[in-house]
Each structure stands twice: as C-alpha cells, then as structure tokens.
Amino acid sequence: MNDVLAPGGRIGILGGGQLGRMLASAAARLGYSTHIYEPGACPAADVAADWTQASYEDLSALHGFAEGVDLITFEFENIPSSALDALVSACPVRPGRRALSTSQDRLVEKEFLSTLGLATAPYRNVESLADLNAAIDQIGTPAILKTRRFGYDGKGQVRIADRAEAEVAFAQMAGAPAILEGFVNFSHEVSVIVARNASGQVSCFDPAENLHRDGILRTSTVPARLSNSQQQDAILLAGRIATALDYIGVMGVELFVTPGALVVNEIAPRVHNSGHWTQNGCTIDQFEQHIRAITGLPLGDGRRHADVVMENLIGDDMDRLPALLEEPAAALHLYGKAEVRAGRKMGHVNRVTPLSPRS
Amino acid sequence: MNDVLAPGGRIGILGGGQLGRMLASAAARLGYSTHIYEPGACPAADVAADWTQASYEDLSALHGFAEGVDLITFEFENIPSSALDALVSACPVRPGRRALSTSQDRLVEKEFLSTLGLATAPYRNVESLADLNAAIDQIGTPAILKTRRFGYDGKGQVRIADRAEAEVAFAQMAGAPAILEGFVNFSHEVSVIVARNASGQVSCFDPAENLHRDGILRTSTVPARLSNSQQQDAILLAGRIATALDYIGVMGVELFVTPGALVVNEIAPRVHNSGHWTQNGCTIDQFEQHIRAITGLPLGDGRRHADVVMENLIGDDMDRLPALLEEPAAALHLYGKAEVRAGRKMGHVNRVTPLSPRS
Questions:
Q1: Would A328 be classed as within a structural domain?
Q2: Which residues constitute the domain of residue A245?
Q3: What mean pLDDT comes out for the span B72-100?
Q4: Which helix (H) or strand (E) holds B244?
Q5: Contact A186/A211 with Cβ under 8 angstroms?
Q6: Which of 292-321 (B) contact A at CB < 8 A?
Q7: Are residues A24 and A143 in the same domain?
Q8: A275 is in an annotated binding site
C-alpha cells in the first residue's frame, strides 16, 4: 500500500492495552474508525468501534479481522510469526516485518545496530553455559543475561555480579536463547521518538530524558539534558535506524548518554511510553503521528510548544488521584483498567510548563 | 448525586454527534467508559464502549440505558420531556432539568436572563398575527421571528425587514409558539464557556470571538477583542447565569459586544462549538471540564497556554484536507461522519500560535 488511506477508513490494531487505546483515540481524531484484536482484557475496546476477542493462534479470527480492516498496526512487538503470516496475506501490516524481526530478538537488533556503525552495549550470544563463561571473560562483570526474545519492563533479565553466579543465571533462562550484555557507564538515559512514512519522510520529537525504577519507566522529561550536538546526534541516528529498516510508523529509540557517544540501548517498533509527553507538548502527538505515517498522510510537525514532565501512574500511584486532579498544570491520562495491581501502568500525568530556552 | 463518580464508572450520553464523540473521548482520558444513546447515525459510537440505537420515544430502551450507566449527560438541549422523565427516575441526569427547560424555550430563557438583570435583545412573545404586529410596533424592524423551541444553526428563524412581511413570516412558523427579537447593534460576538460543579465551584475559559456565516459558526478566535473590564464582565455574567440555574456541567454563553454593554444572545446547556479551541489551547479542555463537573471531580484550571483560531470544516471544506494536513500548526479534529453534505459540520481545525499579550 503506497496509497493514502483516506479518513473514513478502518484501522486494525493488534493489542488492546493503553498504547492501542491511545492509538485508537488519535485515529478517531483523524476520522478513522478502529478495530482492536486482543485476547485478554482490553482497555482499548472502550474507545474503538469494534473488538475481536481471540487468541493469536486463532487463524480464522485473524483472517476475519484482517478482512474487515483497511490496514493493520500493533501496539507491541512480540506478535507470533504465524499470526503475522495469516494477517499479511489479507491486509497491509505497518510497520513491516523487518522492524519486528529485528526488534523481537536482542541479538539480531544489536547486530543490526552494529552494522549501521552505532554504539551499543558490549554483547555476546549465549547458547550454553560455556558460551556464558566465555562471554563473561570477554565482557567482564557486572553484566546482564537477557533472553533474546519476549522481554519487557525488566522481565527475562538476570544481573550477574560475579562469574560464580553464571550457572544459576543460565539456569534461569530455562533454555531460552540469550545474550550477555555488559554495563554501559552512562550519565543518564534519553529516548527519541522518530516517525517515518512510506514516502521516506522522517520527523523526530525532541529527545526526552527517562528515569526508570525497578526496570519500569517512571518519568520522561523534555527538554532532556543534552548539548546541542548530542541532541542532533540523537535525532540523526534515530532517523538512520528508521531509514535502514525502511520503517513506516513511529518508533522509540532508547539511548544511554556517555561522555564519548550516545549508546543505543534498544529500539521499539511502536509508539513508546517515553513519548506520552507529546500529547500535551506538541500540536500533533506520537499517536497521531503514527496514524499519519501508516495511513500515508503527511507527517505532522513535531515541534514542542511546552516543557513537559510525564510521570507514569503505576499500581497504587492511583491513590494520589485526588491530589493530581487538583493540580492546575497536570493533564491526566487514565487507561480505564478495571483492576489496580502492583507494577501495573494505570495511567500517566503530563505536567506542562511554558517552553524554556534549551539548557 | 453529590458524591464523586470515580474513574471506572460509566457515563451515558444522549446524542451521538461530534459533541457526544468528543465528550466520550474526554471521559476515556479520565478512565470512564461511555454508553451513547442515539437513534440515528452515530459518530460517537466509534469511540464509546456501547451504543443504544433507539428513539427518544422508546421508554423501554431509555430505561435499559439508564440502568446500565452511573450518570447521564447530553450533547443537545432539545431532549423530549417524556424521555427525561423516564431517565431521571432511574439515574442522575446532569446538567439538570432547570437548565434544559430554560434554554429549550427562547421566551423562558429571555425572561430568566432579564430577571438576573442581564441585557438581552428586545423581545416579545408572539402567539398570533395580532401579537406579531403589536411586537413590530414596539420593537421596530428589522427584527427576527423565531420559534420558541427547537431552533439551531439558524433554523426556525425568519427575518422581517418590513411590517408588510409579517403575515408571510407568521405563516412560516406553522402555528409554533414564537418570539419576535429586535436587532442588536453589536460590533462583534463573543462567547464564554463556563463550568460549574455540584460544590458550586465555577471556572471559565477565556472568551472567544465568533464569526458566523449563513447562521453557522465559522471561526472562534482567542484572545477575543475585549477590554479587560469587558472580559471580566463576560466571565462574571456567565458565572452568574450558571449559579442562578444551579448548573452542573459546561455551558456556552453567547454575547453581543455593544458600546454600552454585553448583551446575552443565548445560552446552551452543553459543551459548545465555540469552545473547541480549548482542545489545543488549554491543559484541560471543555469536554474534560464537563466530565469533571458532572462526575463531581474538581474542575480543571481553565488557563490558556496558546492563542488559537478554531475553524469549522463544513461540507466541502473537507476538500481542503490535503492542505490542512500539511499545516504545521494545525490540529485536526475530524468527526468520522460517513457522508459529506452541504452545511454539515465534518470537523474542525485548531490553529495554534504562541500566547500573545492581551490586546
């Protein structure tokens, strides 16, 4: 599909969490209707025209879904290959498989980034305990052993402080293919939300500075602490990644800031938690930008018109709702999840202040 | 209901047009789900959890609807009394009947405003041709004969340039109760979007300056051309109206600016087209403000952080979509209506520029 999907068309979204929900709302603003595919609980269904509740193994449901929409996108990268096979035969899927297969596998991703000449954490493929011990010899400790696939929010990761811990750590992978990553000595972490459309047009939002706790993003702040040349580097490398993947849509690129270079931590082929600040800091936010990119509309201008601190509301952060509702500069975005659970992202708040000069 | 409806609750919305649609999206941002009641085509259904398609005469459908939601609001004021009777017995309806009965009838509305000491256009009740002729004697021409009920966007109105036209004009009312309104010699028209909640808290957005063509709003601009004291007068009188009606929710108050005073044109007990600029000019927009008011949450701060010109996209204005999508400062809001028709509101665009000093 190199054509434009005109407003009025229907967009299918794989995944019905908060990202799917905010994509659906943005699509509606542009006059599209949406259909969510989600096996489990589905906050997105409340703001979408339709919802197919079926598993990713249900090929007949997948076919029916694909035939009822003009275009398919997704809110998460761990979509089973068999499901994608079933979908792409019936309907364009954007972003495409290249971005998915690259980002679904930490080893493939690191090799792809290295090929582009970009800095990453030192890494080694680990298929056996012998591999792991050899990797520790080369990379040193501390290091992190990570499953190559299906990790998110710190899951599927074991920290190795000392090589005596190698065997226990390897056992925790339970036979899953893994990589060992060395630590990067970074001062802080930033991310760039980059958009690219089928015409090759690229647009980045200002980098955000991210703070994690317990492996989960807590806050994203714009402007980030970056020199002018670091900011430009960040944007250029994000654009290079998107172009090399022939990417269509919005992508998150996480970067470690080190004295020498920006080191790519990981890429996410989807709208990204660290881009939620754009909802209140830009005329066109990351969700609308993604919809514009996949439908072939011109990308929006990513200019920021305010400073923003985005704070995730996780688990019992929801108890603070009464106070948050009283804050004059706080824009609330709740996800409509029925149950509060520890570690669960329930919403976020964007605190908006007038644009400051670049620091 | 003086209690707060906590996020997670379900809000019923009478009417499924663009106002219902944008209310539903705002409710979702605060974690509420929505259920639309709409007999006809329903742009709002695409962003709501549920939709009852039934007429306002279907008491059983109304009952079912009311029993499935925690709270009911509406996007239009011409709700039949019998439908309201059926609803209020099962569920709180906000704003309440006082505001509806006042604004549904131009005569009652004008009398209410006069009682508050507010200036209105000169008016007379017209029940017969003799009444009309007497009214013309008192008010003069030109004047406008308007049905007391069910008028909107210039419908149900006849302009009388000369008393010789009285008989033809009266015949056009087809026996409907009417009023004759004299012309007001105004320089421009502004409106205030005022919110009030059950605790009596009141908050106004900055007045917008409105331009109509063919009886339909074309643009709303903030800041409006108003002196500081006029701006304060506008806000004070809007607050006075809301308080006198014991109003709960967001209300639009249209004002004519004359050298002597602000003359109230009409009030609309709902979110208002002239408040759409708040979506991109304020941290909390009129739709969220309405949801906050009716659910008992604290009102948001209505402060404006940008200048905005809102332009309605009417009928074949939609042909300009390609150019609008290329404008960097243009935030598009399309309503997802299936069919473009002359005079039909298809969407709007908010053009955002940095905050200017008050003019």
A1: yes
A2: 188-354
A3: 93
A4: helix B228-244
A5: no
A6: 292, 297-298, 300-301, 303, 305-306, 321
A7: no
A8: no
